[in-house]
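Long-time lurker, first post. I've been practising inverse folding by hand and with some scripts of my own, and I keep getting stuck on stretches where the structure tokens seem ambiguous. Below is the full token string for one chain I'm working on. Before anyone asks, I'm not after the true native sequence, just a reasonable design that respects the backbone. If someone could post their per-position residues I'd love to compare against what I wrote down in my notebook.
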């Protein structure tokens, strides 16, 4: 089935000029959800992935399902202050100001092979911060997979330039 048709677009959300690509409609459609997870897994199924890291919050839903399918562990990458144990943190720039992603120090060990999952890649700022965070702990990032790519914003290209094999399922033009 056509995954693109299962994704809803909300114009001018959360601010004017942004076309918000809402995957909740895809998640609610059993066939679309299964197909999306199958397609996220497929290119990397033979890679001996130890863990899947998902970016809060939509990356948890997709990443959890991908981890289950790969028989891998799951590592949540969370916004600042949400994880209860000792964390490593990385700050990254947003359009206005900055944000931080955190991971538990004991969520993985150096040398583990990790696949990164999120719903969408736009500028790549969030995903690059996630790669930085995982590499600081000695992880080998063997893949990054996203349902939606906004290629004009260049994030997937930046991730590839950082040495991460990237797979995306559907692309949309514009922001
Ligand atoms: P970026 O760091 O610019 O690659 O932005 C990626 C993060 O922001 C992802 O976690 C997305 O969920 C969210 N995001 C950015 N742009 C959009 C958009 N147009 N529609 C839906 N989510 C978006």
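-- Answer (accepted) --
I ran through it position by position. Result:
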């Amino acid at each position: 089935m056509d995954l693109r048709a299962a994704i809803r677009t909300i114009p001018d959300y959360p601010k004017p000029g942004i076309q918000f690509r809402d995957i909740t409609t895809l998640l609610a459609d059993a066939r679309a959800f299964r197909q999306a997870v199958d397609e996220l897994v497929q290119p990397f199924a033979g890679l001996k992935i130890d863990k899947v890291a998902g970016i809060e919050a939509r990356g948890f839903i997709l990443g959890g399902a991908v981890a289950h399918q790969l028989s891998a562990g799951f590592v949540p990458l969370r916004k600042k202050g949400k994880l209860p144990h000792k964390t490593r943190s990385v700050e990254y720039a947003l359009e206005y100001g900055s944000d931080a992603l955190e991971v538990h120090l004991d969520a993985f060990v150096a040398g583990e092979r990790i696949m990164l999952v999120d719903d969408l890649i736009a500028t790549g700022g969030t995903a690059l911060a996630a790669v930085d965070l995982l590499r600081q702990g000695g992880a080998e990032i063997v893949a990054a997979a996203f349902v939606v790519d906004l290629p004009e914003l260049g994030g997937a290209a930046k991730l590839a330039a950082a040495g991460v094999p990237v797979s995306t399922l559907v692309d949309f033009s514009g922001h």
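A couple of notes from the structure itself: Strands lie at 8-11, 19-22, 51-55, 73-79, 87-93, 98-104, 113-121, 140-149, 166-171. The chain has one domain: 48-171. Happy to go over any region you disagree with.
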